[in-house]
Specification:
Order of helices and strands: EEEEHEEE
Largest sheet: 5 strands, mixed, barrel
Radius of gyration: 17 Å
Structural class: mainly beta
Strand content: over 45%
Distance between the termini: 55 Å
Shape: globular
Length: 143
């Protein structure tokens, strides 16, 4: 029987992206995403869930270059669980999202004037990484 492991999230970054490189030089970026729930709790407050998102290769470098804390993004990807032994000898585990696609949403900062309001970065195994990065600009209506 086939399984399905698919995640779609829209939320805001809680901190600036963290870009690192593997020993073989592959870029990997970690995003921390807050996603508001669609309903208030018993006190009438809207709560949020927090997720770690892992982004690889060219897409990771573009996220680190253009995203900042507070920016809204849409992420599609899959859940991944992993475990390790901490420095204290305790076994630890986590579940995180491995992004297949990150879409930059919302308004850009003044410092990002060269970036489109909506930039889409898509990554697939069969495609040319640089060809997948084409900014899309949404027309602005000024009143």
């Amino acid at each position: 029987m086939a399984g399905l492991n698919s995640v779609v999230l829209i939320g805001n970054l809680t901190r600036d992206p963290e870009l690192r490189y593997t020993p073989s030089g592959v870029p990997v970026c970690t995003l921390r995403l807050a996603v508001s729930r669609n309903f208030p709790n018993q006190q009438g407050e809207v709560e949020a869930d927090y997720f770690n998102v892992i982004v690889w290769r060219n897409q990771a470098e573009k996220c680190a270059e253009y995203l900042t804390k507070g920016r809204q993004v849409a992420v599609t990807g899959r859940l991944q669980s992993r475990s390790w032994e901490g420095a204290d000898g305790q076994k630890r585990s986590t579940i995180e999202i491995v992004a297949d696609r990150v879409v930059f949403l919302g308004r850009r900062d003044r410092a990002d004037d060269m970036v489109a309001d909506l930039t889409e970065v898509s990554l697939s195994e069969d495609s040319d990484l640089d060809a997948d990065l084409e900014p899309r600009v949404e027309d602005e209506v000024v009143f």
